Here is the input.
Amino acid sequence: MHQILREHIEKIVPLTDDEFAFVASHFISKKYKKHQFLIQEGEAVKYHYFVVSGLLKLVYTDDTVKQHIVSFAMEDWWESDFYAFYTQTEATMSLVCLEDTEVLCLTLGDYKKLCNDVPKMNRFFLEKANFGFLGAQRRIISSLTSNSQERYEQLLEQYPALFQRVPKSLLAAYLGVSRETLSRLSS
Here is the structure.
């Protein structure tokens, strides 16, 4: 499991064996079953998660109890309710397993320690955050300017693996369309 993390980090920054041993010592390995919550709305967010295997969905529930899928996270991705994690406030979103999932968990204190004690990790996390911001901006622009067919095609092009692993009802919710509309888009 830690070898997967090392390969992931070293796509951005090289680490010596000693540096990686120090980094790895700050992560906690956890396994979750399908439908299990890693984060529940209203609770404290203890961890930033690196997905080793499995699939997650980050969900926001509005005042009318309608669920909005904010994102999916699969292998080699990081996920959390980042606002709640970094501000140490209660979660406004839930993180749920769509498949049995293995993650490596990092607390805020350990995140800060790694950034402080291993400058390469500061660079790594900055690059990961920047790519996350870019992805979020791209999704917002797409939501504002693209029709449902265009959003469907963009998702299919960017993340084809999701279409094999995520139920159509959840893909439809992510795209902001009905299940029937998604069926028309995919035919």
In short: The longest strand covers residues 67-74. Strands lie at 28-32, 37-39, 48-53, 55-61, 67-74, 78-79, 93-97, 101-106. The mean pLDDT is 93.
